């Protein structure tokens, strides 16, 4: 680290989101290569060698980069459809279209999803991709390539479905894989793309889609595969009352008990949504350290309900934030989820005591690192951790009259991102991507959305 090139950021407020919620009203951060070398109050130490850049961050708040723990990138090209549906009706309406995606569509949609998140402060993203039509190309490779080019740290949750309509599931018959095919393709994706190193930019998780779209055997063997390969597990769980009814009718038990019976609770597992959880479910997640990706905007958009996030946190359940697919969260931005998580949870049983600003910021940073299994490397600003951080401008009209910058970031309007660093490399400057042409991405996503609509209309 002593020989690494250094970037010095000074004159900024800092929210470290470390174990003690350490904050500095006026401080500095020193980056050395890919790592955070030091941080603290006041100016940076004198006499630093190999300083290639100094940033005067007056008027800014520096936080860890935001971490998205649940998304479906391909949905970027089907935004604005089925806007008045609940989850099951929404899925039935959109599956016939999704089943016609191909590699150019998926690559464009991944670019759009990643670009929108990155310019809004996301430094680590994930994508749960589970639709693999026959002959559609290398979809996993297309998604991973888009993330690499965007410069964002990335986890691909390689999804799968093998329970189609003929088996009592929701997806159409032509939209699913076979059990053996799904397992083989998932293992190949892990072996080709997963990096287990501390500084990994790409990781892969095993991710059968949901109880109503995969067989019990795919869940069970998927868990065995993930643990044999040493990677994490991800799926949807307890999202709606309809899902709970489905599980009771088909399996004779609720979603959490069903997941536990198939090996799907554990500290290497995280699940999206977890809206309809009773006290016993929450206790099981806490006991096993199973993580949760909380998606407040999507839960509201699909009228799924309000997840019991305060109760989960009190019990010790790891909780992060997720955008969810942009066909159920058309903005596709994670920084708005900080505010929505706080506000929506205050509509629940705990009312104004549900969440505060710092808890919301923790969900979007360190909480996300926990559920992705990377809390040792990212999610807080500490010496030795990877240099993933964001400079939020807080001295504009939108925020300047709010004295506390963390309150301003969470309660206020979406704050401008002056700079975003991933692995020590700057990927955003003054709200614009440095790693992609946003206008070109917009054109390509529009073209691919129209192309998909034409193909779907032709049946």
UniProtKB/TrEMBL annotation:
One Gene Ontology molecular-function label: metal ion binding
CDD domains: ATZ_TRZ_like
PANTHER family associated with the record: AMIDOHYDROLASE-RELATED DOMAIN-CONTAINING PROTEIN, AMINOHYDROLASE SSNA-RELATED
Keywords annotated in UniProt: Hydrolase, Metal-binding, Zinc
Species in which this protein is naturally found: Streptomyces longwoodensis
Keyword Translocase: no
Entries under Pfam families matching the protein: Amidohydro_1
Protein name per UniProt: Hydroxydechloroatrazine ethylaminohydrolase
Domain Amidohydrolase-related residue range list: 61-425
Top-rank taxon: Bacteria
Keyword Hydrolase appears in the UniProt entry: yes
Matching SUPFAM superfamilies: Composite domain of metallo-dependent hydrolases, Metallo-dependent hydrolases
NCBIfam families assigned to the protein according to its UniProt record, in alphabetical order: PRK08203.1
């Amino acid at each position: 680290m002593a020989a690494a090139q250094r970037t010095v950021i000074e004159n900024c407020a800092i929210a470290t989101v470390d174990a003690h919620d350490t904050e500095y009203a006026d401080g500095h951060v020193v980056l050395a290569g890919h790592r955070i070398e030091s941080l603290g109050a006041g100016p940076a130490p004198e006499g630093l060698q190999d300083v290639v850049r100094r940033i005067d961050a007056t008027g800014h708040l520096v936080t860890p980069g935001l971490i998205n723990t649940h998304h479906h990138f391909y949905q970027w090209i089907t935004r604005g459809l089925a806007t008045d549906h609940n989850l099951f009706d929404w899925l039935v309406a959109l599956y016939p279209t999704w089943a016609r995606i191909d590699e150019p569509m998926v690559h464009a949609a991944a670019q759009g999803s990643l670009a929108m998140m990155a310019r809004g402060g996301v430094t680590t993203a994930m994508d749960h991709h589970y639709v693999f039509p026959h002959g559609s190309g290398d979809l996993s490779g297309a998604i991973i390539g888009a993330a690499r080019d965007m410069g964002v740290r990335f986890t691909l949750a390689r999804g799968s479905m093998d329970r189609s309509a003929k088996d009592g599931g929701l997806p159409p018959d032509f939209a699913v894989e076979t059990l053996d095919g799904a397992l083989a393709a998932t293992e190949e994706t892990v072996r080709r793309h997963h990096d287990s190193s501390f500084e990994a930019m790409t990781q892969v998780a095993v991710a059968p889609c949901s109880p109503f779209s995969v067989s019990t055997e795919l869940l069970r063997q998927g868990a065995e595969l993930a643990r044999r390969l040493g990677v994490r597990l991800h799926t949807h769980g307890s999202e709606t009352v309809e899902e709970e009814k489905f599980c009771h009718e088909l399996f004779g038990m609720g979603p959490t008990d069903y997941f536990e019976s198939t090996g799907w609770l554990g500290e290497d597992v995280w699940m999206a949504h977890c809206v309809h959880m009773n006290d016993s479910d929450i206790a099981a997640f806490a006991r096993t350290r199973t993580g949760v990706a909380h998606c407040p905007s999507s839960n509201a958009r699909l009228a799924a309900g309000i997840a019991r996030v305060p109760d989960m946190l009190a019990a010790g359940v790891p909780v992060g934030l997720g955008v969810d697919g942009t066909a159920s969260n058309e903005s596709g931005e994670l920084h708005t989820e900080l505010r929505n998580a706080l506000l929506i949870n205050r509509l629940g049983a705990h009312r104004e005591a549900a969440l505060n600003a710092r808890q919301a910021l923790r969900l979007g940073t360190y909480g996300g690192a926990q559920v992705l299994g990377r809390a040792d490397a990212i999610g807080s600003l500490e010496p030795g951790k990877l240099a993933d951080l964001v400079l939020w401008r807080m001295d504009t009209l939108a925020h300047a009259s709010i004295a506390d910058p963390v309150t301003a970031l969470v309660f206020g309007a979406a704050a401008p991102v002056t700079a975003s660093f991933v692995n020590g490399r700057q990927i955003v400057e003054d709200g614009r991507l440095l790693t992609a042409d946003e206008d070109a991405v917009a054109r390509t996503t529009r073209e691919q959305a129209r192309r998909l609509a034409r193909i779907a209309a032709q049946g």
